[in-house]
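Consider today's protein:

***
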Amino acid sequence: MLQLLGVVIFFLGLLVSIGLHEVGHMLPAKKFGVRVSEYFVGFGPTLWSRKGKETEYGLKAIPLGGYVKLVGMIPPEDAVKPVKVRGKLSQIIADARSASVDEVQEGEDYRAFYHLTWWRKVIVMFGGPLVNLVLAIVMFTIVLVGVGLPTATTAISEVAACVPASGQTECAAGDATSPASQAGLQEGDVITGVNGEPVTEWNDLTSVVAANPGNEIVLTVERDGQSLQIPVTPASYDRPDDGGTGTTTVGYLGIVPTSEVVPQEPLAGAQLAWTYTTTTLKVIVTLPVQIYHAFMATIGQEERSGASVMGIVGVGRISGDIVAADVEGYGVKEKAADMLMLLGSLNVALFAFNMIPLVPLDGGHIASAFWQGIKNGWARLRRLPRPRPVDVARMMPLAYGVFGVLIIMGAVLILADIFAPVTVG
Protein backbone atom coordinates (compact mmCIF):
# COMPACT_ATOMS: atom_id res chain seq x y z
CA MET A 1 0.00 0.00 0.00
CA LEU A 2 2.82 2.42 0.89
CA GLN A 3 4.55 1.55 -2.37
CA LEU A 4 1.43 2.58 -4.28
CA LEU A 5 1.15 5.77 -2.22
CA GLY A 6 4.69 6.72 -3.21
CA VAL A 7 3.89 6.21 -6.89
CA VAL A 8 0.71 8.31 -6.56
CA ILE A 9 2.62 11.11 -4.82
CA PHE A 10 5.21 11.08 -7.59
CA PHE A 11 2.64 11.30 -10.37
CA LEU A 12 0.79 14.09 -8.57
CA GLY A 13 4.10 15.95 -8.30
CA LEU A 14 4.73 15.30 -11.99
CA LEU A 15 1.29 16.64 -12.95
CA VAL A 16 1.82 19.77 -10.85
CA SER A 17 5.23 20.31 -12.46
CA ILE A 18 3.79 19.89 -15.95
CA GLY A 19 0.81 22.10 -15.14
CA LEU A 20 3.02 24.91 -13.84
CA HIS A 21 5.30 24.52 -16.88
CA GLU A 22 2.33 25.25 -19.13
CA VAL A 23 1.31 28.19 -16.93
CA GLY A 24 4.81 29.55 -17.59
CA HIS A 25 3.90 29.65 -21.30
CA MET A 26 0.29 30.77 -20.90
CA LEU A 27 0.67 33.82 -18.63
CA PRO A 28 3.23 35.75 -20.72
CA ALA A 29 1.38 34.80 -23.92
CA LYS A 30 -1.84 36.31 -22.56
CA LYS A 31 0.11 39.30 -21.25
CA PHE A 32 1.38 39.97 -24.77
CA GLY A 33 -2.14 39.67 -26.22
CA VAL A 34 -1.93 36.18 -27.76
CA ARG A 35 -5.19 34.24 -27.57
CA VAL A 36 -4.72 30.96 -25.71
CA SER A 37 -7.56 28.66 -26.74
CA GLU A 38 -6.62 25.55 -24.68
CA TYR A 39 -4.69 24.67 -21.53
CA PHE A 40 -4.48 20.94 -20.80
CA VAL A 41 -2.40 18.76 -18.52
CA GLY A 42 -1.90 15.29 -19.99
CA PHE A 43 -2.62 13.79 -23.39
CA GLY A 44 -5.31 11.52 -24.84
CA PRO A 45 -9.00 11.48 -23.90
CA THR A 46 -10.30 14.42 -21.88
CA LEU A 47 -11.21 13.54 -18.28
CA TRP A 48 -12.40 16.99 -17.26
CA SER A 49 -12.52 20.46 -18.76
CA ARG A 50 -14.00 23.88 -18.09
CA LYS A 51 -14.44 26.77 -20.50
CA GLY A 52 -13.13 30.13 -19.30
CA LYS A 53 -13.56 33.50 -20.97
CA GLU A 54 -11.60 32.34 -24.02
CA THR A 55 -9.52 29.39 -22.78
CA GLU A 56 -10.62 25.82 -22.17
CA TYR A 57 -8.86 24.35 -19.13
CA GLY A 58 -8.72 20.61 -18.61
CA LEU A 59 -7.12 17.34 -17.63
CA LYS A 60 -6.45 14.45 -19.98
CA ALA A 61 -6.00 10.75 -19.28
CA ILE A 62 -2.27 10.20 -19.96
CA PRO A 63 -0.14 12.15 -17.43
CA LEU A 64 2.98 12.31 -19.58
CA GLY A 65 2.91 15.91 -20.71
CA GLY A 66 0.67 18.86 -21.37
CA TYR A 67 0.18 21.78 -23.72
CA VAL A 68 -1.22 25.25 -24.22
CA LYS A 69 -2.58 26.09 -27.66
CA LEU A 70 -1.23 29.48 -28.66
CA VAL A 71 -3.31 30.68 -31.58
CA GLY A 72 -1.46 31.52 -34.78
CA MET A 73 1.96 30.03 -34.11
CA ILE A 74 2.36 29.38 -37.84
CA PRO A 75 2.13 32.39 -40.18
CA PRO A 76 -0.26 32.25 -43.16
CA GLU A 77 1.01 31.52 -46.65
CA ASP A 78 0.92 35.15 -47.81
CA ALA A 79 3.22 36.23 -44.92
CA VAL A 80 6.15 33.94 -45.81
CA LYS A 81 8.23 32.91 -48.77
CA PRO A 82 6.73 30.24 -51.04
CA VAL A 83 7.45 26.66 -50.04
CA LYS A 84 9.53 24.95 -52.71
CA VAL A 85 9.39 21.36 -51.49
CA ARG A 86 6.88 19.00 -53.07
CA GLY A 87 5.18 15.73 -52.27
CA LYS A 88 4.51 14.46 -48.76
CA LEU A 89 6.62 17.10 -47.03
CA SER A 90 4.73 19.84 -48.82
CA GLN A 91 1.42 18.34 -47.70
CA ILE A 92 2.57 18.15 -44.06
CA ILE A 93 3.58 21.81 -44.16
CA ALA A 94 0.34 22.87 -45.85
CA ASP A 95 -1.84 20.93 -43.37
CA ALA A 96 -0.03 22.42 -40.37
CA ARG A 97 -0.39 25.93 -41.80
CA SER A 98 -4.08 25.43 -42.56
CA ALA A 99 -4.83 24.17 -39.04
CA SER A 100 -3.02 27.16 -37.51
CA VAL A 101 -4.80 29.70 -39.74
CA ASP A 102 -8.19 28.16 -38.94
CA GLU A 103 -7.59 28.76 -35.22
CA VAL A 104 -7.45 32.53 -35.74
CA GLN A 105 -10.87 34.03 -35.20
CA GLU A 106 -12.19 36.62 -37.61
CA GLY A 107 -10.88 40.06 -36.78
CA GLU A 108 -8.27 38.75 -34.36
CA ASP A 109 -5.30 38.18 -36.64
CA TYR A 110 -3.40 40.78 -34.61
CA ARG A 111 -3.53 38.34 -31.66
CA ALA A 112 -1.72 35.57 -33.54
CA PHE A 113 1.51 34.38 -31.95
CA TYR A 114 3.57 34.86 -35.10
CA HIS A 115 3.05 38.64 -34.88
CA LEU A 116 5.02 38.85 -31.60
CA THR A 117 8.48 40.40 -31.64
CA TRP A 118 11.26 37.84 -31.42
CA TRP A 119 12.11 38.67 -27.82
CA ARG A 120 8.47 38.28 -26.73
CA LYS A 121 8.44 34.85 -28.39
CA VAL A 122 11.55 33.93 -26.40
CA ILE A 123 9.89 34.99 -23.14
CA VAL A 124 6.75 32.98 -23.90
CA MET A 125 8.60 29.82 -24.92
CA PHE A 126 11.25 30.06 -22.20
CA GLY A 127 8.60 30.64 -19.53
CA GLY A 128 7.74 26.94 -19.25
CA PRO A 129 11.27 25.58 -18.75
CA LEU A 130 12.08 28.50 -16.45
CA VAL A 131 9.21 27.50 -14.16
CA ASN A 132 10.67 23.97 -13.92
CA LEU A 133 14.10 25.35 -13.06
CA VAL A 134 12.63 27.60 -10.36
CA LEU A 135 10.63 24.68 -8.94
CA ALA A 136 13.81 22.61 -8.76
CA ILE A 137 15.67 25.39 -6.96
CA VAL A 138 12.81 25.83 -4.47
CA MET A 139 12.59 22.09 -3.76
CA PHE A 140 16.35 21.72 -3.37
CA THR A 141 16.49 24.78 -1.12
CA ILE A 142 13.73 23.45 1.13
CA VAL A 143 15.69 20.24 1.63
CA LEU A 144 19.23 21.58 1.80
CA VAL A 145 18.57 24.73 3.81
CA GLY A 146 15.40 23.83 5.69
CA VAL A 147 16.30 20.22 6.54
CA GLY A 148 20.02 19.85 5.82
CA LEU A 149 22.33 17.19 4.47
CA PRO A 150 23.97 14.30 6.30
CA THR A 151 27.54 15.54 6.75
CA ALA A 152 30.59 13.62 7.92
CA THR A 153 32.16 15.01 11.10
CA THR A 154 35.61 14.47 12.61
CA ALA A 155 34.15 12.26 15.33
CA ILE A 156 34.92 8.54 14.94
CA SER A 157 31.98 6.12 14.79
CA GLU A 158 33.99 2.98 13.95
CA VAL A 159 37.62 1.85 13.78
CA ALA A 160 38.42 -0.65 11.02
CA ALA A 161 40.28 -3.76 12.02
CA CYS A 162 42.40 -4.05 8.87
CA VAL A 163 43.63 -2.48 5.65
CA PRO A 164 41.43 -4.23 3.07
CA ALA A 165 42.67 -5.16 -0.37
CA SER A 166 42.19 -2.60 -3.13
CA GLY A 167 38.54 -2.37 -4.15
CA GLN A 168 37.37 -4.40 -1.13
CA THR A 169 35.53 -3.30 2.02
CA GLU A 170 35.71 -6.46 4.14
CA CYS A 171 38.74 -7.85 5.96
CA ALA A 172 40.30 -11.08 4.72
CA ALA A 173 42.92 -13.42 6.13
CA GLY A 174 46.37 -11.88 5.82
CA ASP A 175 45.19 -8.25 5.69
CA ALA A 176 47.38 -5.92 7.77
CA THR A 177 46.03 -4.33 10.94
CA SER A 178 44.72 -0.83 10.28
CA PRO A 179 46.91 2.10 11.42
CA ALA A 180 44.00 3.52 13.45
CA SER A 181 43.67 0.26 15.39
CA GLN A 182 47.44 0.07 15.94
CA ALA A 183 47.52 3.65 17.23
CA GLY A 184 44.71 3.01 19.70
CA LEU A 185 42.08 5.30 18.20
CA GLN A 186 38.63 4.58 19.62
CA GLU A 187 34.99 4.99 18.80
CA GLY A 188 33.84 8.38 20.11
CA ASP A 189 37.21 10.08 19.66
CA VAL A 190 36.97 13.52 18.07
CA ILE A 191 39.91 14.54 15.88
CA THR A 192 40.52 18.27 16.26
CA GLY A 193 43.91 18.69 14.64
CA VAL A 194 46.58 17.17 12.38
CA ASN A 195 50.27 18.00 12.78
CA GLY A 196 49.37 20.94 14.99
CA GLU A 197 46.90 22.44 12.52
CA PRO A 198 43.20 22.54 13.55
CA VAL A 199 40.66 20.58 11.52
CA THR A 200 36.91 21.08 11.70
CA GLU A 201 35.72 19.12 8.66
CA TRP A 202 36.13 15.51 7.60
CA ASN A 203 37.56 16.50 4.22
CA ASP A 204 40.31 18.51 5.96
CA LEU A 205 41.39 15.35 7.75
CA THR A 206 41.12 12.94 4.81
CA SER A 207 43.09 15.21 2.47
CA VAL A 208 46.08 15.16 4.85
CA VAL A 209 45.81 11.41 5.42
CA ALA A 210 45.51 10.67 1.69
CA ALA A 211 48.60 12.77 0.93
CA ASN A 212 50.82 10.95 3.49
CA PRO A 213 50.98 7.20 2.78
CA GLY A 214 53.82 5.78 4.87
CA ASN A 215 54.54 9.10 6.58
CA GLU A 216 53.87 9.64 10.29
CA ILE A 217 51.32 12.30 11.21
CA VAL A 218 50.22 13.44 14.66
CA LEU A 219 46.52 13.63 15.45
CA THR A 220 45.08 15.85 18.17
CA VAL A 221 42.24 13.87 19.69
CA GLU A 222 39.58 14.82 22.23
CA ARG A 223 38.68 11.81 24.42
CA ASP A 224 36.60 11.97 27.61
CA GLY A 225 37.40 15.66 28.05
CA GLN A 226 41.13 15.20 27.54
CA SER A 227 43.29 16.32 24.60
CA LEU A 228 45.68 13.62 23.36
CA GLN A 229 48.50 13.69 20.83
CA ILE A 230 48.46 10.38 18.93
CA PRO A 231 51.11 9.62 16.28
CA VAL A 232 49.94 7.37 13.45
CA THR A 233 51.39 6.31 10.10
CA PRO A 234 48.80 5.96 7.30
CA ALA A 235 49.14 2.74 5.32
CA SER A 236 49.62 2.82 1.57
CA TYR A 237 46.37 1.93 -0.17
CA ASP A 238 45.73 1.54 -3.90
CA ARG A 239 42.41 3.31 -4.48
CA PRO A 240 40.63 2.51 -7.77
CA ASP A 241 40.28 5.53 -10.04
CA ASP A 242 36.80 6.79 -10.93
CA GLY A 243 37.17 5.62 -14.49
CA GLY A 244 38.06 2.11 -13.37
CA THR A 245 41.20 2.13 -15.51
CA GLY A 246 43.81 2.26 -12.78
CA THR A 247 44.61 3.00 -9.15
CA THR A 248 46.07 5.83 -7.10
CA THR A 249 48.16 5.25 -3.99
CA VAL A 250 46.80 7.18 -1.00
CA GLY A 251 47.13 7.09 2.76
CA TYR A 252 44.68 4.96 4.74
CA LEU A 253 43.84 5.15 8.47
CA GLY A 254 40.82 2.93 8.89
CA ILE A 255 38.30 5.17 10.62
CA VAL A 256 34.63 5.81 9.82
CA PRO A 257 33.16 9.23 10.69
CA THR A 258 29.92 9.95 12.45
CA SER A 259 27.33 11.87 10.48
CA GLU A 260 25.00 14.70 11.43
CA VAL A 261 22.40 16.61 9.46
CA VAL A 262 23.71 20.11 8.77
CA PRO A 263 21.64 22.90 7.10
CA GLN A 264 23.42 24.26 4.05
CA GLU A 265 23.99 27.85 2.93
CA PRO A 266 21.07 29.75 1.30
CA LEU A 267 22.39 29.38 -2.26
CA ALA A 268 22.95 25.63 -1.94
CA GLY A 269 19.69 24.85 -3.76
CA ALA A 270 20.60 26.99 -6.75
CA GLN A 271 24.11 25.54 -6.84
CA LEU A 272 22.77 21.99 -6.81
CA ALA A 273 20.28 22.84 -9.56
CA TRP A 274 23.17 24.14 -11.68
CA THR A 275 25.20 20.98 -11.02
CA TYR A 276 22.25 18.74 -11.90
CA THR A 277 21.53 20.78 -15.04
CA THR A 278 25.07 20.43 -16.40
CA THR A 279 25.03 16.71 -15.57
CA THR A 280 21.66 16.25 -17.28
CA LEU A 281 22.85 18.06 -20.40
CA LYS A 282 25.82 15.70 -20.58
CA VAL A 283 23.42 12.74 -20.30
CA ILE A 284 21.27 14.18 -23.11
CA VAL A 285 24.31 14.34 -25.39
CA THR A 286 24.89 10.61 -24.84
CA LEU A 287 21.18 9.71 -24.83
CA PRO A 288 21.23 7.57 -28.01
CA VAL A 289 24.00 5.42 -26.48
CA GLN A 290 22.11 5.24 -23.19
CA ILE A 291 18.94 4.12 -24.98
CA TYR A 292 20.89 1.47 -26.88
CA HIS A 293 22.31 0.00 -23.66
CA ALA A 294 18.87 0.11 -22.02
CA PHE A 295 17.44 -1.81 -24.98
CA MET A 296 20.23 -4.40 -24.83
CA ALA A 297 19.55 -4.85 -21.10
CA THR A 298 15.84 -5.29 -21.84
CA ILE A 299 16.50 -8.21 -24.21
CA GLY A 300 19.00 -9.74 -21.79
CA GLN A 301 22.19 -8.99 -23.71
CA GLU A 302 23.65 -6.66 -21.04
CA GLU A 303 23.34 -5.87 -17.36
CA ARG A 304 21.49 -2.60 -16.67
CA SER A 305 23.94 -0.10 -15.23
CA GLY A 306 23.14 1.62 -11.94
CA ALA A 307 23.93 4.91 -13.71
CA SER A 308 21.52 4.17 -16.57
CA VAL A 309 18.98 6.78 -17.59
CA MET A 310 15.49 5.84 -16.38
CA GLY A 311 12.00 6.41 -17.71
CA ILE A 312 8.81 7.35 -15.95
CA VAL A 313 8.21 3.81 -14.67
CA GLY A 314 11.65 3.56 -13.08
CA VAL A 315 11.38 6.91 -11.34
CA GLY A 316 7.89 6.03 -10.14
CA ARG A 317 9.18 2.77 -8.69
CA ILE A 318 11.94 4.61 -6.82
CA SER A 319 9.38 7.00 -5.35
CA GLY A 320 7.37 3.99 -4.17
CA ASP A 321 10.50 2.50 -2.59
CA ILE A 322 11.16 5.76 -0.74
CA VAL A 323 7.71 5.90 0.86
CA ALA A 324 7.60 2.15 1.60
CA ALA A 325 11.11 1.97 3.11
CA ASP A 326 11.13 0.61 6.67
CA VAL A 327 14.54 1.61 8.00
CA GLU A 328 15.42 2.84 11.46
CA GLY A 329 16.04 6.59 11.46
CA TYR A 330 14.34 7.03 8.08
CA GLY A 331 11.06 8.63 9.02
CA VAL A 332 8.49 10.92 7.46
CA LYS A 333 10.80 13.95 7.37
CA GLU A 334 13.59 12.02 5.65
CA LYS A 335 11.17 10.46 3.16
CA ALA A 336 9.59 13.83 2.38
CA ALA A 337 13.05 15.30 1.82
CA ASP A 338 14.00 12.50 -0.58
CA MET A 339 10.71 12.86 -2.48
CA LEU A 340 11.36 16.59 -2.88
CA MET A 341 14.88 15.86 -4.12
CA LEU A 342 13.47 13.35 -6.61
CA LEU A 343 10.84 15.80 -7.88
CA GLY A 344 13.45 18.56 -8.00
CA SER A 345 15.67 16.34 -10.14
CA LEU A 346 12.68 15.62 -12.39
CA ASN A 347 12.10 19.35 -12.87
CA VAL A 348 15.76 19.84 -13.76
CA ALA A 349 15.34 17.12 -16.39
CA LEU A 350 12.20 18.83 -17.75
CA PHE A 351 14.10 22.12 -17.96
CA ALA A 352 17.18 20.68 -19.66
CA PHE A 353 15.27 18.43 -22.05
CA ASN A 354 12.93 21.19 -23.17
CA MET A 355 15.89 23.42 -23.98
CA ILE A 356 17.06 21.07 -26.77
CA PRO A 357 16.93 23.34 -29.88
CA LEU A 358 14.62 21.10 -31.88
CA VAL A 359 10.90 21.52 -32.54
CA PRO A 360 8.45 20.54 -31.12
CA LEU A 361 10.44 21.18 -27.92
CA ASP A 362 10.49 24.67 -26.43
CA GLY A 363 14.16 25.04 -27.31
CA GLY A 364 13.33 24.67 -30.99
CA HIS A 365 10.84 27.54 -30.87
CA ILE A 366 13.33 29.63 -28.86
CA ALA A 367 15.99 28.97 -31.50
CA SER A 368 13.62 30.05 -34.29
CA ALA A 369 12.80 33.24 -32.36
CA PHE A 370 16.49 34.05 -31.98
CA TRP A 371 16.96 33.41 -35.70
CA GLN A 372 14.20 35.94 -36.35
CA GLY A 373 16.03 38.43 -34.15
CA ILE A 374 19.27 37.85 -36.08
CA LYS A 375 17.48 38.34 -39.40
CA ASN A 376 15.84 41.54 -38.15
CA GLY A 377 19.13 42.92 -36.86
CA TRP A 378 20.97 42.13 -40.10
CA ALA A 379 18.23 43.84 -42.10
CA ARG A 380 18.48 46.96 -39.93
CA LEU A 381 22.23 47.10 -40.39
CA ARG A 382 21.75 46.95 -44.15
CA ARG A 383 18.76 49.35 -44.00
CA LEU A 384 16.51 46.78 -45.63
CA PRO A 385 12.79 46.21 -44.99
CA ARG A 386 11.88 44.03 -42.01
CA PRO A 387 12.21 40.34 -43.00
CA ARG A 388 9.24 38.04 -43.16
CA PRO A 389 8.53 35.96 -40.05
CA VAL A 390 10.32 32.63 -39.62
CA ASP A 391 8.09 29.99 -41.17
CA VAL A 392 7.55 27.47 -38.39
CA ALA A 393 5.44 25.35 -40.77
CA ARG A 394 8.61 24.31 -42.61
CA MET A 395 9.82 22.71 -39.39
CA MET A 396 6.76 20.47 -39.02
CA PRO A 397 8.25 17.44 -40.82
CA LEU A 398 11.23 17.66 -38.45
CA ALA A 399 8.86 18.14 -35.49
CA TYR A 400 6.95 14.97 -36.38
CA GLY A 401 10.22 13.07 -36.76
CA VAL A 402 11.51 14.29 -33.39
CA PHE A 403 8.19 13.43 -31.76
CA GLY A 404 8.36 9.92 -33.21
CA VAL A 405 11.91 9.43 -31.91
CA LEU A 406 10.82 10.61 -28.45
CA ILE A 407 7.95 8.10 -28.45
CA ILE A 408 10.32 5.27 -29.36
CA MET A 409 12.87 6.26 -26.70
CA GLY A 410 10.15 6.57 -24.08
CA ALA A 411 8.81 3.11 -24.96
CA VAL A 412 12.31 1.57 -24.74
CA LEU A 413 12.87 3.09 -21.29
CA ILE A 414 9.47 1.93 -20.04
CA LEU A 415 10.23 -1.64 -21.16
CA ALA A 416 13.72 -1.45 -19.67
CA ASP A 417 12.32 -0.18 -16.36
CA ILE A 418 9.91 -3.13 -16.27
CA PHE A 419 12.15 -5.99 -17.44
CA ALA A 420 15.62 -4.73 -16.40
CA PRO A 421 15.06 -2.18 -13.64
CA VAL A 422 17.85 -0.04 -12.27
CA THR A 423 18.87 -1.07 -8.76
CA VAL A 424 19.39 1.93 -6.51
CA GLY A 425 21.06 1.52 -3.14
User: Anything to note?
Assistant: DSSP finds eleven helices and ten strands in the chain. The CA atoms of residues 325 and 331 lie 9 Å apart. The two ends are 21 Å apart (CA to CA).
